[in-house]
Design brief:
single chain; 15% strand; alpha+beta
Length: 93
């Protein structure tokens, strides 16, 4: 049996998106309304305004759960058609 090559990331690559509140520029892939992949680089991590607040005290920076402002930016970009939604269904409200 031959393994099928998964071409989804080639057919639907990640797209650049800038956060609406800061200079964080990330790569985003929106598979559907419930699933989003975000790729942060070091520059984006340093630029994010919410990251330092979430990583205070004894919380390691690797446990950053995500930026609410970036999530809203992604949602808006998806609804406006600036970011492709690969498997479109009815958006959540």
């Amino acid at each position: 049996m031959t393994e099928r090559t998964d071409l989804r990331i080639i057919d639907n690559p990640m797209q650049p998106l800038d956060c609406s509140a800061c200079a964080a520029s990330v790569l985003v892939r929106k598979s559907n309304w419930q699933q989003t992949s975000i790729q942060w680089n070091e520059t984006a991590q340093k630029a994010c305004r919410e990251r330092p607040l979430a990583c205070r005290g004894d919380r390691p920076t690797g446990q950053f759960a995500g930026c609410e402002t970036l999530a809203a930016t992604i949602r808006d970009a998806s609804l406006e058609g600036r970011i492709d939604v690969i498997f479109k269904d009815v958006p959540e409200k």
